[in-house]
């Protein structure tokens, strides 16, 4: 006798703009029978109605997050609201018993991250952040090669997110402000590639950095650079920019036996990963290319592992210590840039101004009377 399939998990979305409509909704549709979208919340009723026409009229609409959580009782909540509301909404969902998959950044500070972790419970619910670049088949294969030592010891790395954003981009009221975005391209753009770098190379131990406001009239930076030392001894450079007309996202790792390089913009497939052998390793290059089906990096790829973990009753990928490590790295980069001294892993804790806010109350960067807004459900972001 064949066992009956478990009922689909009940999902809800918070925010119904571009990132939810263009990425989360297709990801949910890619998992028929496993998950069912039952509710959506947004303070913009017109946009909510437009989303429900796209998602299906059976999806209940709410303008109040608390009411949605109480009435729809979702098993998981996907959050695509502006960053300032992520922590508040994530904690509310966790307390209702729902696990969370939230757009980056999961929150605006290490203090908020630890408050989210405190709202989790052993056995779930759990909170994860969308770091979809980890989950393409090319990234999975590269990490396996690096961890196995088949490329030799990692020695030198480069992580680049050089994008372009014009003045109109920053006319959106919440962008460019610490209290609503959490930072500039370091926090809002480059965090994806930096997370992938840490995912590939493991724990970092020290950061030295610089940041600047070179073009845009914003509170946060529009460019940052960093030097990073890893626990393995490898050294890396990091560049985050919204000033670069020739846009590219790139990671390069030079190992003892080969260079592995990923070049893309907003997503990658197997062909975007290139392996170049050292002169003594030319006969091994064919064995490094990713085998099997090509799974591009995407929200759908991450959701696959997320749903599998929920079914198994274990922590989904994208949360816990690894997600905190990435956020701590961002905080350390800001602290190193603003103080002009190296920052070591583990040094930013309660009592450190960079634990409470990425600007660390630095007089040249922190705006006067900076405070976080609170709202039950906010509009979507991109």
From TrEMBL:
Residue span of region Disordered: 359-382
Entry superkingdom: Bacteria
Domain annotation GFO/IDH/MocA-like oxidoreductase: ranges: 141-260
Gfo/Idh/MocA-like oxidoreductase N-terminal domain boundaries: 9-124
Designated name of the protein: Gfo/Idh/MocA family oxidoreductase
